[in-house]
Automatic annotation (TrEMBL):
CDD domains: metallo-hydrolase-like_MBL-fold. It comes from Alteriqipengyuania halimionae. Residues 34-226 form the Metallo-beta-lactamase domain. This is MBL fold metallo-hydrolase. GO terms for molecular function: hydrolase activity. The lineage of its organism: Bacteria, Pseudomonadati, Pseudomonadota, Alphaproteobacteria, Sphingomonadales.
Length: 255
């Protein structure tokens, strides 16, 4: 499998509006972060999009992505789903709607807010055929499992994708490591982990928690994501272990 990191930043991106780079060096291109979203692609060409970030159109253009085979949502917070309308163009030329997957609670909220995407409207076709995760385990030759993770007072969905004997885990926006997460994520080749900042945060993982999760599941490689303006790329890269990669927009990695 191949990981393509479309976006690596927190909900406000880096820099924040007003040219606020925080501790990030503006001269380092890897510090320019759009909102988080990834592509998981199998050797056979199945291409799965995880989250429709606020910056989705720009991300798809920058990475020359003009086709996906399915879309997954971790949760319905704005930075993870408000680029949903950009799926319309990916629907063009298809004989059927794009398959979509989300938890039961997330699917309900997405339908409430973006009804036209899932049911069509005014003669326009349905863009996404949404299924709940309790009814699906595989798509396009890629097996997947999910687990609900604490995200402060709410929950988000973590995913494990498996294909050709490799496993990639995507765990963003979590604030606690649970036994169920450890069970589902165990032995992953690649873990993409939430890592907002160095200091603990009430709704997100911090640096030590992200590294701890990688150690507890015995992940071969850990990729840090959802990074805020305090996480300068070069500084963070110099202080993390060799198996930990500081994520950046456009990062490509084979599992």
């Amino acid at each position: 499998m191949r990981l393509l990191m479309l976006g690596s930043g927190t909900s406000t991106g880096v820099p924040r509006i007003g040219k606020d780079w925080g501790e990030c060096d503006p001269a380092e291109p890897k510090n320019r972060r759009t909102r988080v979203s990834i592509i998981v692609e199998s050797d056979e060409g199945t291409r799965l999009l995880v989250d429709t970030s606020t910056d989705l159109r720009a991300q798809l253009l920058a990475n020359e992505i003009d086709r996906i085979d399915a879309v997954f949502w971790t949760h319905d917070h704005a930075d993870h789903c408000h680029g949903i309308d950009d799926l319309r163009v990916l629907r063009y030329g298809r004989s059927a709607a794009i398959p979509g997957f989300a938890s039961t609670a997330c699917a309900y909220r997405l339908r409430q807010r973006f009804g036209y995407v899932f049911a069509g409207q005014h003669g326009y076709p349905t863009i996404v055929e949404l299924q709940t995760l309790d009814r699906a385990r595989m798509h396009g030759g890629v097996a997947f499992r999910s687990v609900e993770m604490p995200h402060g007072p709410t929950q988000t969905t973590g995913f494990r994708f498996e294909c050709d004997g490799k496993a990639l885990v995507y765990a963003t926006d979590f604030s606690e490591i649970t036994n169920e997460m450890l069970r589902v994520f165990d032995g992953a080749d690649v873990l993409v982990s939430d890592c907002l900042r160095r200091q603990p945060h009430p709704t997100h993982a911090h640096l030590d928690m992200a590294i701890e999760l990688g150690e507890r599941i015995d992940a071969h490689t850990v990729v840090l994501s959802h990074l805020d303006k305090s996480m300068d790329y070069a500084t963070l890269d110099a202080e993390t272990p060799d198996h930990v990669i500081v994520g950046y927009d456009g990062l490509e990695l084979a599992a």
